[in-house]
Amino acid sequence: MQTSDNNKKSLFGPATLVTAAFIGPGTVVTASLAGANFGYALIWALVFSVAATMILQEMAARLGIVTGRGLGENLRQLVQNPLLRWPLLLLVVVAIVIGNSAYQGGNISGAALGADALFADSAAVMQWKNYSSVNPWALLLGLVAAVVLWFGQYKLIERCLIALVILMSLAFIGTMLLTRPDLAALLKGAFWPAIPTGAVLSVVALIGTTVVPYSLFLHAAAAAQKWPHNNVAPQVAIRAARQDIAVAIPLGGLISIAIVSTAATAFFGREQQLDNVAQLAQALTPMFGSAATWCLALGLMAAGLSSAITAPLAAAYALAGVLNKPLDLKQSVFRATWIFIVLCGVVLSSLGIRPVNVIWFAQVANGILLPLICLCLLLAMNHSVLGQYRNNRWQNGLGLVVLLVSLLLSGRSLALAFALL
Q1: Contact at 8 Å (CB) between 213 and 45?
Q2: Which residue in 23, 127, 137, 346 could disulfide with 112, CB within 3.0 to 4.6 Å?
Q3: Mean pLDDT of 359-378
């Protein structure tokens, strides 16, 4: 088998797609509210969620590398009983494809919010708003996502998302430094777990925005494409994948911590309450100067755009795998899936539609899907097809801990969804 210097030395790889996926507007909102309401006290939940994500994503990457297939294809092979297989595969389609269609509206809306804060005074933007109620940024950002996915080979998409993750890192960490956080309180919050009164749902939400099922489909398929099992020795690819995970996922956690810290510095302990991210951006200017506001807005735009690319991509990988179609960006089912999701996101965002019913449905489906996918992944990682690359006892033990956490997240998602009834 051949190996390449790129595979040995690349600092960023498929794990960057996972970081780009979970650092979206939802994470920005959740982390901002956690910081504003509870200060630095819940940063330990982010530390835990990063560790849990690394455990699951390492398994997903190893599965993709050794089998040469995505998670959807492996689920087809793993679950042979048709009474179990088709309900499971249908749930995957519903939760990931339909769910990501709804969440795509939030991704584009979040990116548009950041772009509007950066370029609100532009003459062209103001003229557009005078003649149309449609959000111009939603159309433009949806078009950018579509162009990247339409013309992009995997390498190009990976490079675009690496650039966005680096931009998010500089923007959010730069904002944190400009707001001068309390480092002693930050370190205590990271390594001394505590749950203040009323913070239980915030803890679960912080974990839930990081440990998400569709990232497992994304990572397994991307790793299979990054390191083709016929061209790269599995042990070499797995080593590179672990190095990639060790860099990209903690970087995503650092971004989340920076957002919590910024909100804690700006709002915690003050009479003013934080209701949304736009309010946080507005509050930074009088307190810390326009540079902090610009950094936050730039990070929000990058977060929304990165998730607006990865959500359709993950859904397409999942559906293609479930239908046993090639994981080819130009394959018709693959392309039709991400086009549908991008269009849904643009319509929902540009027209200001609130997809409450669809999001409710997605919450229920995702609440059921997460522990099921965790369980299936653990079963797959102990299958004989993996040979020497099967899970060892430590990996299974850590996986079971994450499975228990996923059950907690499942209960929270279902409780929130039925609370909307």
Answers
A1: no
A2: 137
A3: 76
